[in-house]
Write a structure and sequence with these properties.
Layout: E1 2-9, H1 13-22, E2 29-32, E3 48-51, H2 53-61, E4 71-74, E5 76-80, E6 86-90, E7 100-104, H3 105-119, E8 122-125, E9 129-133, E10 140-144, E11 149-157, H4 164-168, E12 173-189, E13 196-202, E14 205-212, E15 216-223, H5 225-233, H6 236-246, E16 254-256, E17 261-270, E18 274-275, E19 278-280, E20 286-287, H7 295-310, H8 319-348, H9 352-366, H10 369-379
Parallel strand pairs: 1-2, 1-11, 2-8, 5-13, 11-19
Antiparallel strand pairs: 3-7, 4-7, 5-6, 9-10, 10-11, 12-15, 12-16, 12-17, 13-14, 14-15, 17-20, 18-19
Helix pairs in contact: 1-3, 1-7, 7-8
Length: about 375
């Protein structure tokens, strides 16, 4: 049996970033991931995320954002309501160089893994977890499908929204099904986007266009399941025409460069994020509606704080420090879940009074610089 101080289960963005951050610390770290990233491919990944400048700066400080990450800066974001409301967020107005960075999941994950490899003091295992032996006095033991076992003073569940490790720990979660599907696809555009992200609140959901390098953009359309199925069934040229029309031909004609894919949108929050020797990270602990593009950023802020809490050594699984970590993360997560869920519900209502009020509120916020700048700065952390 191998032993370590910290075992991270899940080598996606959040788990890999945490491993990078812990690499220079006092603890021995093992990262277990059944499907490590392979060499970068030229084809575009449909999983595109918006990364806040604060998180990008942190990842760069870890060496995890290299020149193979294809990224585009968002300089401005334009948001339209469904009855004339409009908001514009501009980096220059807020004294910033960019509002966010847009990049593919697979290339950033591969870059983080390359940084882990350079660090040399994190053990990575391409293996699948099969069972856990819980020890009330620690350490816990993770059993792998290939017969190996690893004991660790802290197990980190970074294995996603359907976390296997969370289930093994018997931790439940509260869920709210938004009854929407996020349909994603990438497109080549006729016109340059000039680093502008676009978002429309529509009767059929929320449509977002995120700029990619060159004349390309990534679409996320949060929409009811029936409409999502229709979009995914369209031929590529018909989908491109439908998306161009829905976005008012803002970027001219479109051409699909990845097929449409869909994923159900569910807000989750685990009943507890920590136990002695166990912490849930990122989507294993919480998920949010994607309309603000903040799910991955919440996870990175989890990783940033957890690495900070653990940097001084000692028992990483000690419940006092883990409880303090969870308490400090709760406000950020709860605020984002409330905001994104509330916006989704607000724009789902179709009565005239609500439609008028929400669009009036958008115009009011957009015309009042202190409010506009405060909203902008909250999103860059």
């Amino acid at each position: 049996m191998k032993s370590c101080d910290i075992l991270i289960l899940g080598g996606g963005l959040n788990g890999a970033a945490l491993a990078c951050a812990l690499a220079a610390g006092p603890h021995s770290v093992v990262l277990v991931e059944p499907h490590p990233p392979g060499p970068a491919e030229d084809a575009w990944d449909p999983r595109i995320y918006a990364y806040s400048p604060g998180n990008v700066d942190w990842i760069k400080s870890l060496g995890g954002w290299d020149d193979q990450v294809r990224a585009e800066a968002v300089r401005q974001m334009r948001v339209w309501g469904d009855a004339g409301g409009r908001l514009t967020f501009d980096a220059l107005d807020a004294g910033l160089s960019e509002l966010a960075w847009i990049a593919e999941n697979n290339r950033l994950q591969a870059s983080l893994w390359r940084a882990i490899g350079r660090a040399g003091n994190v053990t990575t295992l391409a293996a699948r977890a099969e069972a856990v032996t819980w020890n009330a006095n620690g350490p816990h033991t993770l059993h792998l499908a290939d017969g190996r076992a690893i004991s660790a003073r802290l197990l980190v569940a970074a294995d996603g929204a359907h976390s296997w490790l969370r289930t093994q720990a018997g931790i439940g979660f509260k869920a709210e099904d938004y009854r929407h599907v996020g349909v994603v696809a990438n497109f080549a555009t006729e016109k340059p986007h000039r680093g502008i992200a676009f978002q429309w609140f529509r009767p059929d959901g929320v449509l977002a266009w995120l700029p990619l390098p060159g004349r390309r953009m990534s679409m996320v359309w949060s929409t009811p399941p029936e409409h999502a199925a229709q979009l995914q069934a369209l031929a590529p040229e018909d989908l491109a025409a439908r998306v161009a029309e829905a976005g008012l031909h803002t970027l001219g004609a479109l051409a699909c460069i990845t097929p449409a894919a869909g994923f159900p949108l569910v807000r989750r929050r685990a009943d507890t994020w920590v136990r002695p020797g166990l912490v849930l990270l990122g989507d294993a602990a919480h998920t949010v509606h994607p309309l603000a593009g903040q799910g991955v950023n919440l996870g990175f802020r989890d990783s940033r704080l957890l690495a900070e809490v653990l940097k001084n050594g000692g028992d990483p699984g000690e419940i006092g420090r883990l409880t303090a970590y969870a308490a400090r993360r709760l406000e950020d997560v709860a605020s984002m879940q409330f905001t994104t869920g509330g916006l989704k519900k607000l724009f789902a209502r179709d009565d005239g009074l609500t439609r008028t009020a929400r669009n009036w509120g958008m115009r009011l916020a957009g015309g009042f610089d202190p409010v506009n700048q405060a909203l902008t700065r909250h999103a860059i952390l």
